[in-house]
Every structure is written in C-alpha cells, then in structure tokens.
Amino acid sequence: MFTGIIEEKGTIKDRQLVSEQAMLITIEASQILDDMQMGDSIAVNGICLTVTAFSETYFQVDIMPETLKTASLKLLTEGSSVNLERSMPANGRFGGHFVSGHADGSGTITRKETRENAVNVAVDVPDELAVYLIEKGSVAVDGVSLTVFGISGRTMTLSLIPHTVSATVLGDKQKGDPVTIECDILAKYMKNMLSEQH
Q1: For the chain, what is the total number of helices (H) and then of strands (E)?
Q2: Which of 49, 69, 85, 122 could bond to 111 as cystine, CB 3.0-4.6 Å?
Q3: Which helix (H) or strand (E) holds 166?
Q4: pLDDT tens for each residue of 86-142
C-alpha cells in the first residue's frame, strides 16, 4: 500500500526486453535505497513493482505482460525520469490517499497551463475509468496523489502545486503525453457494491 506522496525521482539506467511482453528495468535512485531489501515493493510511476536486485546506486524490477498492458511504463527509455515511492510503513504518516499501486489504465494529457503559482493539467481518461472520478475526489496520476478539481465528460482537471511540479515527473510532461491512472480504491469498492445490488 502507498500514499501517492512521491519520495524522489529516479532515472531509468537500463531497459531490457525479456520477451515481447516482459521487461527488466534498472533504476538509479538514492533516497529510497537507504533501507532497501530484496522483495521490497516500490511504486514506479504508480505501479507496484518488486525489487529483484539492488546496489548502492540502483535497483532492478521485472515488469510482467499484464503490467505493460495497463501502464505507460512500456514507453520509458534510458534516461527517462520516474516517480518513486516506498510502500507505507505501519507507523508512518498518511499524507495522500490509499494507493494500491495497481493501475486501472492510462490517460492522456490534453492541456497544461500555468495559473498564478499552480499548473493546471487536463487529462482524458477512458469511459470505464471516468465513472470513478468525482470533483474534489482523489486520483493517482503516475503515482502522485492528486485532487480532481473539475470534470467534463471524460476529462479531469488537476492543479499541481509548485512542489509537485518540481518533485515529480508530472512537471516535465506535456500535452499528448500518456500517464498511468489509478482511481480511488474506495470509489471502486462502492461502485462494485452498488452494482451487485441491481
């Protein structure tokens, strides 16, 4: 379980295709390596991945076919920046919202504009994800816990504070770029329960 509060940006050091639908990624990092153990769960752009090897400067994760189908990780290249977050400790602060690290799908940035000290970002999402979005509700975009400030059809509007712009990969993304989406887990449970009643 994660909170969507990004700890640092890492850099893709190496990307190896194991097969057409599987990949091994090596990520350079610093802060999250402090207490790393084999088998740790790390959210990479919001995707929960398992550490299979690590050193003082990098760690490795395997990406399975199912993960590649629903996430924008397949578009990463050597040198790409990624959002990194360790799983939430039982005694830690809870600053974001419940983020499982299991992507629901991908969206596309359709607009990005600066308003005073904020950067407003519009993201188009598939119809099957739009039903889980509510104004002032939570959503994880590339692993970042954000509040939905507006909804118009399949498009949600997000507002990034200066820290989010500088500390996450969302600050570098532009119109047309894909992002990984994880809808609020509580909204998904609620919709599932209501669907079973009809």
Answers
A1: 4, 12
A2: 122
A3: helix 162-167
A4: 998 777 777 788 899 999 999 999 999 999 999 999 999 999 999 999 999 999 999
